[in-house]
Here is the input.
Amino acid sequence: MQISITGHHVVVTDSMRAYVHKKMDRIVRHFDQLIDVHYLLSVEKLQQKAEATLKVRGGDIHADAVAEDMYAAIDALADKLDRLVKKRKEKDTDHHAEEGRRARH
Here is the structure.
């Protein structure tokens, strides 16, 4: 899995980069089928914004979060991504949907 981190109007420091990698470990623990991850950290006026796009089999997962502090924005983004990844994983392993598809054919 490749993780790329880009800054827009903000310099991505080594501590920010390490923090993003630390937060991604939790997401990878729940969903190990990630192909590629792209983070975009930006500053718009007084708000810090963190966005991420996760490329997975079957489509992309995108989320963003805004906060007054970049680390808080990364935390909120990690929570959103974790929920979305769990939802995708449940959808992929929904056995009831598989039974319904078999019954129609």
